Amino acid sequence: MKARKPLLHLAAFVVAVVVAKIVSAILAGHGVIKAETPMPVILLGTIVGMTYGLLAVGIVLVFRSNRIINFAHGQIGAFGAAFFGVAAVKWHIPYWIAFVLAAIVSAVTAAGAEAGVVRRLRNAPRIVSIVATLGVGQFLVVFASLINSTASGPLYPQPTWLPVFNVGQLRVTPAYSGMLLLSPLFVLAIALFLKRSRFGLAIRAAAANPEAARMSGIFASRMSTLAWAIAGALAAFTAILTAPTQGFVGADSFGPALLLRALTAAVIGRMQSLPIALVSGIGLGILEQILLWNYPQSGLVEVAMFVIILVALLVQRRRTGRDEEKGSWAAVQGLRPIPDRLQRLWTVRALGPVFAVVTIAVLALMPVFISNGQSVTLTGIIAFAIVGLSISVLTGLGGQLTLGQFAVAAIGAVVSYKVATSAGGFPLALLLAGLAAGLVSVVIGLPALRIRGLMLTVTTLGFALATPIWLLAQPWMLGDGKDPGKPVGWPLKGPLDTGREYYYCALVLFTVALVLVWNIRRSGFSRLLVAIRDNEDNARAFAVRASLVKLQGYMVAGFIAGIGGATYGHSLSTISAGSFPASASIDVVVMTVLGGVSTLGGPLLGAAWVLGLPLLDIGNIGLAATKFGALLLVLWKPGGLIQVVAPIRDWIVKFIARRHGIDPDPLYAGEDAGETGATAQGVRISDLRVSESDTAASKRAVVPAGTPLLEARDLRKSFGGVHAVRGVSFEVAAGETVGLIGPNGAGKTTTFELLGGFTKPETGQVFFNGEDISNAGPEGRARRGLIRSFQDAALFPTMTVKQTVMLSLERVRPTSFVMSTLGVTLGERTKERQARALISAMGLDHYRDKAIQELSTGTRRITEIACLVALQPLCLLLDEPSSGVAQRETEALGHLLAELKSELDLTLVIIEHDIPLIMGISDRIIAMADGNIIAEGTPDVVRTDPQVVDAYLGGSITAIERSDVRLAAADR
Questions:
Q1: Angle made by CA atoms 748, 751, 757, in degrees to the nearest 5
Q2: Taking the alpha carbons of 520, 521, 527, 528 in that order, is the dihedral positive or negative?
Q3: 766 pLDDT exceeds 90?
Q4: DSSP summary character for residue 721
Q5: Fewer CB under 10 Å: which end of the chain, C or N?
Q6: HEC states along 668-684?
Q7: How far apart are CA 972 and CA 970, in angstroms?
Q8: Where does the pLDDT of residue 887 fall: very low under 50, low under 70, confident under 90, or very high at 90 and above?
């Protein structure tokens, strides 16, 4: 079946082409569309599509190895093409020898970029690596122009020994022949290398599971470098054969437009399949040439690419793999959390607001010292900063990388212009601009709800390119350009005609956006966004509605971007499609990352750096604002400029603390000696029940003991040819503790995935408290009281212990999105008080302000248990709770689980490899092997079952007697 997959994909492609041809012919026959398909156009599309397909293959190779999109991929190939031109023309090296040398040069360049840039940023979020590849690309643009300023064109060498022929009016040159004949062979060779060779298998293994590959003796970093080198050679192959066919192609010609076409093909191939990516590229090339032949107007191709991306992502199967960047966002946290005790000092709490007021005051005084024209320039910087604030919400908090935010801002600008000119009310125009941009942001973000990772990057890049080229150019949008007019109407006394007057209007709007983002950052909604960013599955297990929170994030980020776009649009004398280029969407991301994407002030700092430095006209200082300058900065400080000024903030806080007689150093180290006495001693877990709100989801059902609570009926799940779960059925009664045991690969975790809703079964049903919950997601099951823990207890690496426990209170006290944006945080005080009580009772006071990733496994387990108490569950699915816990602490863990069950009236289903522990606390044991249940009964019965002894204990019952750990029956 696996061997037939490529043939099935090829057959599906052929069928799709035939169907498209038939449908287009019918529509053309009725005069609905123009659909001429001359053979020369098809052939040219095939040749051009080979370029897109080859670039897509390189993108897939890199994505599979590092999970990032290499924005320097085209420039790496163009650099090799520039070297080839020098070698073949100036040094007179034979064509094919120079060809190989150029491929090696590009391969070494790509490998150097991976080893010297991407690998250094491996602990940072992928957005930082993507920004770094933009810097690499700009550096290669400059370097390529230095070694060969005429890197392409009619004088560029053509391949030797390849045929030349005509198809109609199309002359197939040797370069075209090379693309047609050599491209499939090149991709086939790469595919065979990856499938058959030792290094190819190692690359695939390292990409699929780096940790497991390292345990097998494979150096994952070296394999990643090798994958980049192959992609670099492939990029050179493409660029060298493309160069003779173009009038002029420099390294910067391999920019966003070409990248979008390659990314579209890669997305169709699910960023995994090389053959599908190549064939998709060919199909896109044919489609492009047909569209250009029948509809020569600009922009239609970009719209088609955007639509194809949306459709491809929406129809692909939902990916259930865990693709979170757990802990990586800690690298860009520009400011360390201030210890809780220091935050109680009024002076410390006032630092942020005071700094913000001083900054606004300085900005308000600027027009006094500058000209009217410079005020207009500063207004543009402020507008970019407002758009950057939207990125700080969507990317900095939500982890969703967008490359189309300035295009979203363009929608706000157009709506504001339309409303202001027709209705004349500027406040109404701003409101509708924000709402329209927010709605657009939600629409283009829909595919990211289904497929995790960088898919929002692809859709937003497509939108960023299609918007200025086609959408804004329409007569009913901006056409050839419009006069946006200046704001009038309440609360203004008249039109703001001068640059200085409008500057103050823009400053007020920036202040409003700043307050809105500040409200979000200090609210529970910020905590929800960060939790989903850090560990979406764990957030869903905590009853967080991940999809809804993401949509709310898209909406509020789009709203802020719309305000920024309206601010920018009204500052111009004329707005047109050229006012919102695709490059601006990328520039505003670079700007925000440079300033500090994780902080409130980062966007303004980045805007001042990127847009302000070139205005100073001091020597070569403007180079620091380029993408190459961005590369150097993120290599030094991944968190941006805010990490440079952070020590000043910390020094001020420590100075204030010492003035109040507090030693801050132990507090920053997590040693809050003054609070030790606050730890509750002898507090019973039952005393910590969280008072529930009136929401239906939070009301805890009462299930009589012995009543069936959880039931699995004929659950089956396969992964490829591996049958992980085969017809598993069992019941768990309320108040019961059921242990699930079995060797590795028995299907225990997959069973938990099916029970928890993280994986859909092929057949079978799951019932909870008499209700069929088979179609409910993890958050829906969690709201009903079925809570699942995870083996790694990773929780939310960048959140503190207090924030994590407060997050777990979402089930009983959900956060209001509207109240969060308005700054109403009354419910937060109640959550904080309850979280403090739980933390104190669990003896976690010393760790309250520590980030989760700084804790030991045992401390994370205790934090997780505090969260489980706060969640008020009916049934807990615990996945190896003793994993990572020292053997001497196992007995204490067993007693704690028994107490949890007794005091909170819980039902427990536990996967555990510690046989003495699970046998001691369980009322009933279910043993699995090879996806089947092989034994079920009391611990004493299952312990001596021959199948269990043979399958799990290696044929010797003494294997379970590795310790004297026993728990009294009363603890069950």
A1: 140
A2: positive
A3: yes
A4: T
A5: N
A6: HCCCCHHHHHHCCCCCC
A7: 5
A8: low
pLDDT band for 381, please (50, 70, 90 cuts).
very high
CB 541 within 8 A of CB 787: yes
C-alpha gyration radius of the chain: 30
Rounded CA-CA distance 724/927 in Å is 14
Task: State the Cα–Cα distance between residues 613 and 555, nearest whole angstrom.
Answer: 32
**Partners of 932 in the β-ladder:** 929
Is there a contact between 88 and 95 (Cβ–Cβ < 8 Å)?
A: yes
What b-and-e string marks burial along 71-80, b requiring 16 or more CB atoms within 10 Å of the CB?
bbbbbbbbbb
> How many C-beta neighbours within 10 Å does residue 448 have?
25
| CB distance 310 to 461 below 8 Å | no
Q: At what angle do helices 73-85 and 256-268 cross, to 10 degrees?
A: 120
| pLDDT confidence of residue 191 | 85
Statement: residue 3 has pLDDT above 60: no
- pTM (predicted TM-score): 0.89
Q: What is the mean pLDDT of residues 936-949?
A: 85
Q: Which two tokens stand for residue 869?
A: 């108490």
**Side chain identity at residue 135, one-letter code:** G
What is the sign, positive or negative, of the torsion defined by CA atoms of 584, 590, 594, 599?
positive
Q: Name the residue with tokens 């009913």.
A: 476
State which of 313-322, 492-501, 647-656, 914-923 shows the largest mean pLDDT: 647-656
If one compares 557 and 311, the residue with the highest pLDDT of the two is 557
Quick check: helix, strand or coil at residue 877? strand
Residue 558 burial (CB count, 10 A)? 32
Question: pLDDT confidence of 317, banded at 50, 70, 90?
Answer: low
Q: What is the pLDDT of residues 823-835, one digit of tens each?
A: 887 778 888 888 9
Residue 942 confidence (pLDDT): 86
Torsion over CA of 593, 595, 598 and 600, rounded to 10 degrees?
-140
Q: Rounded to whole angstroms, what are the CA distances from 298 to 307, 407, 409, 414, 927?
A: 16, 17, 22, 20, 65
Q: At what angle do helices 499-521 and 546-571 cross, to 10 degrees?
A: 170
pLDDT by residue (tens digit) across 195-238?
888 888 888 888 777 777 777 788 888 889 999 999 999 999 99
CA distances from 79 to 258, 462, 862, 940 (A): 16, 25, 54, 70
The CA distance from 387 to 589, in Å, is 9
Distance CA 884, CA 893 (A): 12
The pLDDT value given to residue 150: 58
Contacts of 690 (CB under 8 A, 6+ apart): 809, 812, 813, 834, 869, 870, 872
Mean pLDDT computed over every residue of the chain: 84
Please count the other Cβ atoms lying within 10 Å of the Cβ belonging to residue 192. 11
At 255, list the tokens. Answer: 């920019």
Between the alpha carbon of residue 719 and those of residues 4, 276, 517, 723, the distances in Å are: 17, 21, 43, 6
Lowest-confidence pick of 30-44, 318-332, 648-662, 712-726:
318-332
Kindly report whether the peptide bond that precedes residue 491 is cis, defined as omega within 30 degrees of 0. Answer: yes
Give the C-alpha separation, 559 to 591, whole Å: 19
Q: Which of 15, 454, 8 is nearest to 271 (CA)?
A: 454
Q: How far apart are CA 641 and CA 227, in angstroms?
A: 32
Closest-CA residue to 135 (of 789, 587, 541): 587
